[in-house]
Design goal:
The protein is mainly alpha-helical and about 160 residues long. Helix content is about 45%, strand content about 0%. The protein contains five helices and no strands. The N and C termini lie far apart (about 45 Å).
Length: about 160
């Protein structure tokens, strides 16, 4: 269906359709890496064969099917309906590199390991604040949509308290 190709290559797609396709591709790619990593297998999707840009950090109300142009992205630390999708895509991209290294039958160089570790450090440091692990006790005043949207993070942090 061409989700691995950025919508800018298809002039027949509206900005709305393009953004929805980017969101869909981000979820498909993230799920592929997540499931394959859980099974100890390499991902089915090779990131290098896709040129789809990440979706923009936008609220759903920022654009609709009649939009002729997408608005500028909101700051990544502003929680929108895309923030978690973007964070998972960023995480999946880095997990994919590590998964490929783990599944590689050839020995890895020390430099490759250091580079992967550096990427993971950068990923952790640049994770949007709304997606960072924090205890539920710090989330008591958050509105329900925020708690539900990042609930896997909150649940994960509860299991480590």
């Amino acid at each position: 269906m061409g989700y691995h190709r950025d919508p800018q290559h298809f002039k027949s797609l509206s900005p709305y359709q393009g953004e929805m396709r980017r969101r869909m591709w981000a979820m498909i790619y993230s799920l592929d890496i997540g499931f394959s990593t859980q099974m100890g297998l390499p991902g089915n999707i090779k990131h290098s064969l896709s040129d789809t840009m990440p979706p923009r950090n936008l609220q759903d109300r920022d654009f609709d099917a009649s939009s002729t142009e997408l608005p500028p992205a909101r700051p990544i630390d502003e929680l929108t309906s895309s923030t978690v999708i973007l964070a998972k895509l960023h995480l999946a991209s880095n997990m994919g590199v590590v998964s490929d290294m783990v599944c590689n039958p050839l020995p890895l160089s020390y430099e490759d390991l250091v580079a992967a570790n550096t990427r993971l450090d950068v990923m952790q440091a640049t994770m949007p604040d709304p997606c960072k692990f924090r205890p539920l006790s710090e989330s008591l005043l958050d509105p329900p949509p925020v708690v539900f949207q990042v609930s896997p993070v909150t649940i994960h942090s509860l299991s480590h308290e």
